[in-house]
From TrEMBL:
InterPro entries: P-loop_NTPase, RapZ-like, RapZ-like_N, RapZ_C. This is RNase adapter RapZ. Keywords: ATP-binding, GTP-binding, Nucleotide-binding. The keyword Nucleotide-binding applies. It comes from Clostridium malenominatum. Pfam families: PapZ_C, RapZ-like_N. ATP binds at residues 8-15. Residues 1-155 form the RapZ-like N-terminal domain. GTP binds at residues 59-62.
Length: 294
């Protein structure tokens, strides 16, 4: 089990860090009072591996409870529970700028100067900083750069090598474009099996429909160009820190052409080692048997 305690200076990026850990599959809790850490750790370890990656944010917002942190850490260590401390740091100048830009009050200087609050917090966190397993200075970090650093330290090998999850979705335009789509492709220009009586009741999952759709040169050319476009876009999306890509492929009803194309693209992306899912959203909407709609 990996138990990560995220702490550090206010404004140094703890919120972004916990979001990145959540994306990596960690069970995350924000602003957990340190007095509850032993009970929480015990509950997680009792899941017998069902919850094996945990991250909790503990910081100065806990007020007087924060002073219980070291006692709690001593207790869980004595119980044989392993933990890591991730400390987020940044320069005074950067922290002041971030607070001014966000118009937030510093928790230790709600009615005073931001810098005074930062200095008080830095002094109060000195001991926990000295105990940290990992320290990340975010002074010159963008959100994307921080995410990359978190992934490098706390991600699994496959998460580090390929952080992007691709979902290829087939849909019918008559039922609306998927709201979460990043890329939408319209394949209604392809020959439609719906108008072939012996194919109408089948779907793009059936070999009869697949053979029909794929028999046309225009289909092969479209798939070739789409594959080429995706191979260009994917590494650039990863470079910019994108974690999910939804590729929607639509035909009229979402049962024949879009399903066949989605399956083909899914297999091609999978064969190239991408993390990919598929979803045939509307495949059951227009179902036919003996020429009649069910």
């Amino acid at each position: 089990m990996r138990f990560v305690i995220v702490t550090g200076l206010s404004g140094a990026g703890k919120t972004q860090a916990i979001r990145s850990l959540e994306d990596l599959g960690y069970f995350c809790v924000d602003n957990l009072p340190p007095t509850l850490i032993p009970k929480f750790a015990e509950a997680c370890y009792q899941t017998e591996g069902r919850i094996n990656k945990i991250a909790v944010v503990v910081d100065i917002r806990g007020g007087e409870f924060f002073d219980d942190l070291f006692e709690s850490l001593k207790y869980i260590k004595n119980q044989g529970y392993k933990y890591e401390i991730l400390f987020l740091n940044a320069s005074d100048e950067v922290l002041v700028k971030r607070f001014k830009e966000s118009r937030r009050k510093h928790p230790l200087a709600p009615d005073g100067r931001i810098l005074n609050g930062i200095l008080l917090e830095r002094n109060r966190l000195r001991e926990v900083r000295d105990r940290a397993s990992n320290i990340i200075d975010t002074s010159n970090f963008s959100t994307m750069k921080l995410r990359e650093e978190i992934t490098k330290i706390y991600g699994e090998k496959d998460q580090i090598e390929n952080q992007l999850i691709i979902t290829v979705v087939s849909f019918g335009f008559k039922y609306g474009i998927p709201l979460d789509s990043d890329l939408v492709f319209d394949v209604r220009f392809l020959p439609n099996p719906y108008y072939i009586p012996e194919l109408k009741e089948y779907s793009g999952n059936d070999s009869q429909v697949v053979d029909y759709v794929m028999s046309y040169d225009v289909t092969k050319k479209f798939i070739e160009k789409l594959e080429d476009m995706l191979e260009f876009l994917i590494p650039n999306y990863i470079k910019e820190g994108k974690r999910q890509l939804i590729v929607a492929i639509g035909c009229t009803g979402g049962r024949h052409r879009s399903v066949a194309i989605t399956n083909d693209i899914y297999e091609k992306l999978k064969d190239k080692g991408h993390r990919v899912n598929r979803d045939h959203r509307d495949i059951q909407q227009d179902t036919y048997k003996d020429g009649r709609k069910l």
